[in-house]
Amino acid sequence: MATVIPVPTLSTQGFVRDLSGKLDTLLAHFFLSDYNETQLYPGAVTSLPELIQRCGGDAVQAVPLIKDALQAYLGPYYPSLQLDVSPRTPLDIDPSIKVELLITIAIRDGDSIGSFKRLVLAEDSKLSSIIKLNNG
């Protein structure tokens, strides 16, 4: 049996070890963390809203930064990781105001394999929705 690296939490759940629970916990941290929430480790907090804001809300410009940040953030927990980040721009909305990102992740964790998709919506560099997509 392959080794599973648990994700520590500050909740009563303790360490999260199951495939989807780990990914949900890590993505929640990535999506909702505030870049400046620490004084001990300035610049060390990985934050999706900060990456979008840094690119002026330009989803196309933010994609490589987000992909690199997710790879670095998830990599220690999932040695076998494939991910893709692609922008989706609604035709009726100014892309500088609203950003849609489709994040596709395929992981192997121990003996478990999973594929996950999240649609992230941001308006004015603030996350407005995170949608868990099933079946494509």
What are the salient characteristics of this protein?
alpha+beta; Nuclear Transport Factor 2, Chain: A; 3 helices; four-stranded antiparallel beta sheet; 136 residues
Question: Could you write a compact summary of the structure shown?
Answer:
This protein has helices spanning 19-32, 48-54, 59-74, and strands spanning 7-8, 15-16, 80-88, 98-109, 112-123, 126-133.
Could you describe the 3D structure shown?
The protein has one domain: Nuclear Transport Factor 2, Chain: A. 27% of the residues lie in helices and 33% in strands. The chain has 3 helices and 6 strands. Strands 3-4-5-6 form a 4-stranded antiparallel beta sheet. α2 (48-54) packs antiparallel against α3. The relative contact order is 0.16.
Main sheet strand line-up: 3-4-5-6
CATH class: Alpha Beta
Structural class: alpha+beta
CATH architecture: Roll
- The total of beta strands comes to 6
Number of domains: 1
- Could you give a short account of the major beta sheet? 4 strands, antiparallel
